[in-house]
Each structure stands twice: as structure tokens, then as C-alpha cells.
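Narrative progress, year one. The postdoctoral researcher (J.K.) led the effort to move from monomer predictions toward full complexes, under supervision of the PI. The following entry was the first complex the group processed end to end, covering 228 residues in total.
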Amino acid sequence: EDKVVQSPLSLVVHEGDTVTLNCSYEVTNFRSLLWYKQEKKAPTFLFMLTSSGIEKKSGRLSSILDKKELFSILNITATQTGDSAVYLCAVIRQGGSEKLVFGKGTKLTVNP
Amino acid sequence: NAGVTQTPKFRVLKTGQSMTLLCAQDMNHEYMYWYRQDPGMGLRLIHYSVGEGTTAKGEVPDGYNVSRLKKQNFLLGLESAAPSQTSVYFCASSYSGLAGLYNEQFFGPGTRLTVL
């Protein structure tokens, strides 16, 4: 059965800290991995990673995929209170399936 | 450009009642999706549509029906609501499916449904 596991489930840090969120997967016919940020309402897209070892960056956020070890990390540097959210990881499979396999998310709380 | 909108935002039903959730998108997207999000379960796909007039089952389709009569709208129906359907429902749309180049899914704000 396909599985996406995120860790930790929750994390509390102070503003300015750097955090690393983990996502490991066991998915048949892996194609790509996605990261979403979910604040109070809709998830919003952050990154899609398809190739191993290539870092994607957007401001203070960055992510990398390791297809050999079957995991991805999401780094956030110099955290701000606005980074508080649930971060979701999801995997796309090859073969035309429209099912995204989601992890349960990591809840990040950044305190001032 | 409103993106993806959902109505209603909140609803409380009694067991056995029926209702329809409406999703609308103004981005001319072909693909639309309905998910449910439960605590500790992540997002799970209920049904999806690859274009006007088409629908397909996702991971947890039982108890739900959908229709896509117009490209911009995707309706999710509960014919006889059960307490197990208490959840937050998200609609999403994308230009291409997951196998395509433009596969980013844009999510609506969600509908919180409680079935008593």
C-alpha cells in the first residue's frame, strides 16, 4: 500500500530559528513529490520535485528530493510567525492516476 | 479572478439528510477534484473529473456522487448523510492532470460539514 509519512507531526520554534521538515514515501511508480502550505483554509502549492538532488528554492524556503533513499526535506530559514501552518507532502505516481497520496502533515508553530 | 470558490462554507446536517456542495473555478481548468480532510488522516480524494461531462472515483467515493455539467462547476452530493461524513471538504482544480506539465492543483477555501 502506498504510504507517505511526515515527521515530526508537530513542531514549535521561536522566530529566527531554522526548521527541517521530513517526508518519506513508499509509493509504486513514483513520479513527483509536492509540498503544500496549509494555513487556516486552502492548501497552497510550494514546490514540485521530480529529479533527485536538485534543490528548489523560494525565498527562505527550500526543498530537496532523494529518490534513492525515498525522502524529501523542506527547510525554512529565519522563521517568522507567518510561517506557522501545516505543511503537507504529497506524491504523484506514474501511469496517469489522478490520486495524490498525501501525508498527514507537520504542524509548525513559530512563536515570537 | 476569484480562483476556486466553494459554497457553503459551513453546514450542519442531520443523519439521513441530503445536500450538495458547489465548487466553481474561473481559471478554465479541465481537471477538478473533491477531497475530504479528517484529523490525522490527511487529504483523501473522493471523486474527480478530467473535463466537462466526465467524473471518476477516487480513493473514498462511497456515499458521494458528483456531476460536472459545466466546465467551471463541480458538484459534490451527499444523498443520505452519515456522521462518518463529518469532515472538511476541499475542491481543487488544475489545468492538466497530474501527469501533465501544468499539474499544480489550486484549492478552494473548504466547506466544514458536520453530520449529527
